[in-house]
Structures are given as C-alpha cells and as structure tokens.
Predict the structure.
Amino acid sequence: MIDQLKKAYEDWNKSHLNFSQIEDFVEITTPFVDINHDFIQVFLEKKPTGTYRLTDDGNTLNELEMRGVFIKGSKNRTTYFDSTLCIFGVSHDKDTGELFLTVPTIEALPQKQNNLLQCILRIFDMLLTSRNMVTNIFFEEVENYFIEKDVIFTPNLGFTGRSGNQQNFDFVIPHWKGIKEKLIYIVNSPKSDNYKPALFPFIDVRETRPNADFFVLANDTETAISPKFIEPIRNYNIEILEWSHREDWIKQLKVI
C-alpha cells in the first residue's frame, strides 16, 4: 500500500512526505506545520468497501480547544468553520472531532489530501486568531472592506494547477479591459513558516494562470509580518499587501 501511495505522488508532490505503516493505518507526515510548529500528520485507513478514509484524527480541533478556541463559542467561528469545510469538501465527525474525507481510490488521494491540508491550515489560521477579533473574522473584514470600496471580486474560487490539483484563493478579481486578473490569498498570522501554505498555490497555478497578478494579503494589525515570511513570498514575485496600509493599495485592486 505504501508503494502505491509513493507512486501516486510522483508527479504531484514537490515537497517531502513521509509514510509510516501503523497497524491498519498509514501515517502521512506532511511538510506543513501546525500552530505548534510541528509537521501536520494525516492518517489513511482502508475500509472493507475498498474505499479509504483520510482523517486528521481529531488533532485540528483538539489543538484549538487546548488553546481555548471552541467552534461553538462564536457564531462567526461556526459559520466560517462550516463554510470552510464546504469549500474543501471535508466532513466533520461530531462524535470524535475528526476532519475527514472519503477517498474512492489511491489515484484520487493526492487531490483529497491536498483539500484536507488546505482546510486544516485555513481553520488553524483563521479560528485561532479570531479569538482576538471580537466582531469579525479577518476574511469577513476583508470581504466587507472590498464591498465598501466597490472592488469587484469572487470569493473562494479554485483553479487547477500544474500538479492537476485545485488550488483555492480567498478572492479573485476578474480581468477587465487590459487589466490583469488578480488572485489573492489572505494570511491571518504572517509568521515565519506560515508562508508555505500561501506560496504553494501560486507556484502551482503560475503556468495555468499566466495573465494573473498574485497577492498575499497579510494581517499585520495583531502580529508584525516576519522577514522570514516576506522573503520567500517576494522571491516568487508575489506582492504582499499589508492590511494596516489598505488605503494605500486598495485602488490597484479596482477594475472600474
């Protein structure tokens, strides 16, 4: 089973993944880090039906709850949590707290794992910091600001990248009369290694969206943007928009 997994990832995986057989499960250690800066692990189990169950084993919500962040503690958190699961096609087992996906075949695993990881990272990033944002989640703040400033956009839009997987962006501003399309990925905690989940989607779609401009919108109101976050993003010619300076850059996002 491990050999099948490695073969399925040959053309997809550009980072290092480690696979370990643990009884009836395969433990997959990914290059992405959680809120403790530990590598995120997911687990694959083959079901009697021949399908597979890919799960976080409940670690995502457990880590948040250990820090005092509870989904049911806020209407905004609950709404954002549910909508995030919907975007990435992830299910929530209310009894165990697991985030999981059903995988029909090994060949379908790369895309399913990508979806689960993006979902986990988005939940970590947005829900953890929302504890300090009494009235709104950062995504909602940005959305409301764009509406206020008459910025035309589509939220939560995905594109297929070179890997063959869909990469989701928080906001997409359409092409208009010679003005390039704009893809925007927001980051609520722009600290050191947090550049990784933001950078990969842009790298993956660079060839499939050649006429697009790329932006990372970073929330620097609670946490200063780390130099280790800035450097790799800018090395790939991706512009960083500082939320605290939004009045300075908002005009470049308007198409009309």
